[in-house]
Amino acid sequence: MAATNEHCAYCFDVLAAYLKGTSPSTVTASFDGKDKEYPLFVTWEKRSSSGDDRLRGCIGNFSPMRLDSGLREYALTSALRDTRFHPISLSELPKLTCSVSLLTDFEDAIDYMDWDIGTHGVWLEFRTPGGRKRTATFLPEIAKEQGWSKIETIDHLLRKGGYELTITPEFRESTKLTRYQSQKAYLPYSEYLDMRKH
Asked: Which residue stretches, if any, does this entry annotate as coiled coil (predicted)?
């Protein structure tokens, strides 16, 4: 199944209900296949005064979830509990864009270079010097959007996962990389309003 604008619109429905003081559990998912299970991510971006879209929240789950309950949960989690940002407010709603990514085709990579920029998302596992397991991921579009090489992407993942020491080739070799693909849909608030008028 591909991600669709209806998935994004449902996320807007859920977030709008919450911000307006209505229980999100009362919002009905009207899209097909709502009982199918996928790992998924919900991303919120906000249009700035200069016309750029800036990240406002992105959180998801690698465990397959029912689409209706998973999208409801992560529409709110990514909007309100991404610790990199303040929670999204009602006044921001008209400036938002929602993206839904359904993750597919998980494969263990041979090594940290065994993936293609623009095709694969990467999920990196590593251990800190103290032995703690850490993980971090970038969705398939991130490396390409940022203009990163594969090594730059891996190094950004290590930093995202909390690794603070010097990154050596030997440490990169010690990591475990899982590659995956995603089906993504993207919906600005203005198009969401148009969908809900019909």
From this structure: none
